[in-house]
Amino acid sequence: MLEVNSPLIDAQSLSANLENDSLVLLDSSVEPVVPGFTSINNNEKFAVIPGARRFDYDQIVCKPNTSLPHMMPSAELFQVEARKLGINEDSIIVVYDDVGLYASPRAWWMLRSMGHEQVAVLSGGLPTWIEEGYNTVDEFSNPEPGNFEANPDENLFCDFEVVLKALYEPTCKVLDARSAGRFQGTDPEPRPGVRGGHMPNAKNLPFPEVLDGGELKPPEELNEIFASLTTKDKKIITTCGSGITACILTLAASVAGYEDLAVYDGSWAEWGLPSKLPVTTD
Fold this sequence. Notes:
By secondary structure, the chain is of the alpha/beta class. 24% of the residues lie in helices and 14% in strands. It has two domains: 8-131, Rhodanese-like domain (Oxidized Rhodanese, domain 1); 157-271, Oxidized Rhodanese, domain 1, CATH 3.40.250.10. The chain has helices at residues 11-16, 75-84, 104-113, 125-131, 160-166, 180-184, 219-227, 246-255, 267-271; strands at residues 8-9, 23-27, 53-54, 92-96, 119-122, 157-158, 172-176, 203-204, 211-212, 215-216, 235-239, 261-264. The strands form three sheets. A five-stranded parallel beta sheet has the order 1-5-4-2-3. A five-stranded parallel beta sheet has the order 6-12-11-7-8. Strands 9-10 form a two-stranded antiparallel sheet. The radius of gyration is 18 Å and the shape is globular. The N and C termini lie far apart (52 Å).
């Protein structure tokens, strides 16, 4: 019987449970914009893990009518789209992406924020699945509708007002997953009109530092990384360019044993816009 006791699942365990009736497999791939990270799916080839359904939080499972990218939708919209994907209240969900470990942690956190506990990220994603010799197909599954019920936890995603207060709270640490150059304001921002630099009192932890290829570093290494920045009795709010790679840090912190976690949904796409929100390069 498949059971999620960790935020991560490996390809072997997934393969052994691929026929499990309770399993819902979601492809949450988003085209990477960070240098050095590429999708293995392209115009020449397209591979899907058998039975996977497309969880598109960039265009579909996201807040409509906003200029900010892939913002969290309302619980009502999320529930409608989750049911379309055949997700049930008792589903055991595994999310993956076609980069390795890039977009899938956000899908994991979105589901967690809507009250679904039985969800894990496929370690290494589609590339590792293929490297280990498991089969793929060339189209997504179209399941019968499910009975998913959204029970949102408003604390798992936060807005700029929460972050602004947290920056000056000794019980909280804000970690920025962007590159050191973007954090320091020496490299240009990819979005036009967005200011360079970072939030006062935030700490920089570029997300590749918690990765080893397409997988997270071992828990003991993650423990050392996070211990150099904060302690387990403090809340961690992660941020990045648009709310995707922040979730990689959140996943890594969870694996390292940190429990009080939140993601700034708007991230630098919102904070960096011309406004009174404080920005520094110190």
